[in-house]
Amino acid sequence: MNKKLSIVNYQLSIFLVAVFFALPLKAQVNIGSDTTPQSFSILELTTSTLKGGLRLPQLTTDEISKLNTAGDDTAHGLVVYNTDTNCLEFWNGAAWISLCNYIFPAPPDPSTVTDDVPPTGFYPYVGAFWKSAQTGERLIRVTRPTTNVYLPLTPNQEAAVDGAWSAQVIAGMDWIVLDTLMTTDRNVGWRTDFTPIEANVANGNDVGFDNSYRVDGASTYVTGTMNASNPKIYFRIGLKGAIDSDAHRYGIVLLKYKDNTMSQRIWIRQGEEADYLMRNSDPVNSGGISERTACKQFSPYNLTANELNKQVGIKGADPNPGVFTQYPSQAGAFFQWATPTNIRFAYDPITTGIPTGITTWDRNSITGFWDSLGDNYETCPPDYRRPNDGSTGASVDGTDIRASEMRQSLWLNPQKNELSAVATESETANNVYGYYADGFFDRRKISAPYGVLGLTASSNPTSVSTGSYQVAHIGSLFYNTATNASLFFPLSGYRNGRITGSGGDLQDAGKGASYWASSRRTNTGDEWQQKQYIGISIMSSDRNSYGYSIRCVKN
Question: Is 84 within the bounds of a domain?
């Protein structure tokens, strides 16, 4: 064969190769040279004059999916170039595998990574959760901003996140795995390639879930492209194995988008037992304190009850004990701090007006401090209790936070005093707003919640299972960069306890939340609670008659 092939001869040679492969020949072929191919080669391309490469078939993701490779053993090893993801892909007999998942940059030092403010209409996942024995898929699906009557966007705003994206494990590389395979559960609520029956969706706590929906392989890096024709980021996170039932481990997956110019950390947690977020050994120099002395282990779940809109047993006792929700993203129940009637009632999280079966919302105050009241009003399960904001036997004005469990346990820079929801008076240094993939929230269609002052229907998608007591919401995730520990709080809303106007109505679901502390400003009212809104956390005080969430701490 002539070593100085003309372009025409080169193209003719390619054609001949195609013919050879169509025939049952076993001969070795070298195109571009008279040199005998190596013994291990069937085909070699060599040339000393023409400079170029091998151009494989270029197909879109949709075109690749129509190649009918499933069930055909002869398709193993088929290679194409995906023009949507700009990656080589090969068929392994069960799925198309992107080679981009196996060629990736070195992970950055987690301590150098920060989050960018997401563009308007873009709602990222900020964390994922597994129990200690769980390993199965958590689904990260983030959609492109879309204009609607409640959130009008310009074309530039809709395209604000377009371009290449990547997800990479940067902490926990020995136990966290990623892939981009579509879940095999056809009932996942947001799927559009099937007609899902969301009531039949598999959940992360289901028996057999981890075997049925495992994430195989060892990839810690995946990529894709978001644009108008492919308006989503999608990948799966799985774990390699279980840990001891009382253990925890934490990691980070870094999502980069908008041509990999913007970043969002996804904080990974395995372990359902209460754990420290901030520890007494963590440094502090704010709020008038130079050391932490009051850090406690918080449960990852909100408090609820087996039966709602009914009285809860004292300290988790029968009948109707206080229990934790099944998943961290679930709202759970609302509780009044302490009232003369409707004692220890657990109110439901979805009824827009006064809860079903409740004739009158108790707005009366009660005298005393938690040291004496707690024996009759504590609703946390055995070995747990409400966290304090300082003393539980005397008035607390917020000026001395040396004993505040809430401020020291959750905030990187604890602030003193009663705070307002402005950046200069709130803790924003170690909390982030977004979705939480816990095997429940990530498997359902996200929509707007119910609530008198909640988000309007068809507006910001913040909540799932909105017509059920299992409702779950977007929320605030607190993190500790020294340990990678994380703790999620859903923005469950609250029930109104104002002296005038309607009482007990649901407000701010999917928009804000308040979590009771056991401390109060005076012995007749104004109880301390932590308020959370979009990216903001403050300590404030309100009447005991409000219905707020409770997050228990370990005794």
Answer: no
Average of per-residue pLDDT across 53-65: 87
Looking at residue 483, its pLDDT comes to 98
Residue (of 421, 111, 70) closest to 252 by Cα position:
111
Residues in the chain: 555
pLDDT of residue 306: 95
- 279 and 257 housed in the same domain: no
291: nearest Cα among 276, 278, 305, 280: 280
The more confidently predicted of residues 383 and 399 is 383
Are the C-beta atoms of residues 165 and 223 closer than 8 Å to each other? yes
Q: Do 178 and 169 meet the contact criterion of CB atoms below 8 Å apart?
A: yes
Domain-terminating residue out of 226, 245, 270: 270
Q: Distance between CA 76 and CA 91 in Å, rounded?
A: 6
Could you write out the DSSP letters of every residue in 386-431? PPPSS-SSS---SS--TT-HHHHHH-SS---S---SSGGGS--TTE
Number of other residues whose CB lies within 10 A of the CB of residue 486? 28
**Across all residues in the chain, what is the average pLDDT?**
88
State whether the Cα torsion 438-442-443-447 is positive or negative: positive
pTM of the entire predicted model: 0.83
Between CA 50 and CA 219 the distance in angstroms is 37
Domain termination residue (choose one: 246, 270, 294): 270
Structural domain range at position 3: 1-54
Structural domain count, the chain? 3
Shared-domain flag, residues 200 and 253: yes
DSSP 95-144: SEEEGGGGS-PPPPPGGG--PPPPPTT---EEEEEE-TT----EEEEEEP
DSSP 11: H
